[in-house]
C-alpha cells in the first residue's frame, strides 16, 4: 500500500532546466532599429558632414562677388573674377545669384549657420525650460506664479518677439538664437512640469521625502531621469522649428546680416528674379525642407522608441 502511494522518483537529468530570462535589447540598439531614426539621422549626418567638408567640396568664398558672372545657370563652367583680384576657372554647380556669388558654396556654408542655430536654440530652450518646469512642478507655492509667467510669454507671437529683439540688439547670431529660444522655453517648461506632477506622487518619491532626502537629490535622482526621454524628443522639434524660424527671419530681412550665407538670405536675394532664375530659391529651399523634414522624422522615431505610450514593439 505504501509503495503504491509513493511519489515516483524522477531522475535529475530529466528535469528541464529553467529557460533563461529573455534579454532586452539595449536602448541604443532599439533606437537604431527604428527606420525613422535611421532615415532622419542619416540625412542629418550627411548634411553635417557636407557642411563641415564644404571647403573641399568644390566651393569658393561664399561672400565673393563677380558681377560678370551674375545669374549663371546650374552646371555652368566659367571664369570667376572676384573683386579681390582672384581669377580662376570654376564649375558653378547650382549657378550664381545676381551678384555672381556661387549658390553651391553659399548653400553649404549656410548649412553651418542653420544647424548651429537649431542646436543652440534646442539646448537653451531645453535647459531653461527644464529648470522652470522642475521648479514649477515640484514647489507648489511657485507653480502658479511661474506658469502664469510662461502663459504670458506664450501669448506673444514668436516671430514678432524675434523681430523686436533683433531690431533692438542687432542681427547677431547670439541675438537671433536668444530671440528664437525664448518663445520655446514655456513649451518645454509645461512638458517637464506635467512629468514632475505625475512622478511627484510616486511612492518612492514620497519615501525619499519622508527620509528627509535633500530636495536637489530628489529632483536630480528621482524626478529628472523620468523627464529625459520627453526632453530629447521635444528638443528635436524645437531644433526643426528654430531652423525654420531663422530662415523666415533672414528671408524677411530681419535676421542675420544679408551678406552672411544663410538659406533665408539666399532665397531673399533670389526672390526678385524667381521667374527667370528659379534656381536661386529652389536649391536652398530644398536643403531647408530636407533638414526640417529629417529632424522631424528623427523626432518621430525617438518618440516611438522612448515614449512607452507609442512603443508597442517592446524590448
UniProtKB/TrEMBL annotation:
One cellular component (GO) term of this entry? plasma membrane
Q: Which UniProt keywords apply?
A: Cell membrane, Membrane, Transmembrane, Transmembrane helix, Transport
Q: Which domain of life is it from?
A: Bacteria
Q: Where are the transmembrane segments?
A: 35-57, 115-139, 159-182, 231-256, 277-299
Q: Which Pfam families match?
A: BPD_transp_1 (PF00528)
Q: Zinc: is it a keyword of this entry?
A: no
User: What family does the Swiss-Prot or TrEMBL record give for this protein?
Assistant: Belongs to the binding-protein-dependent transport system permease family.
| Name of this chain's protein | Glutathione transport system permease protein GsiD
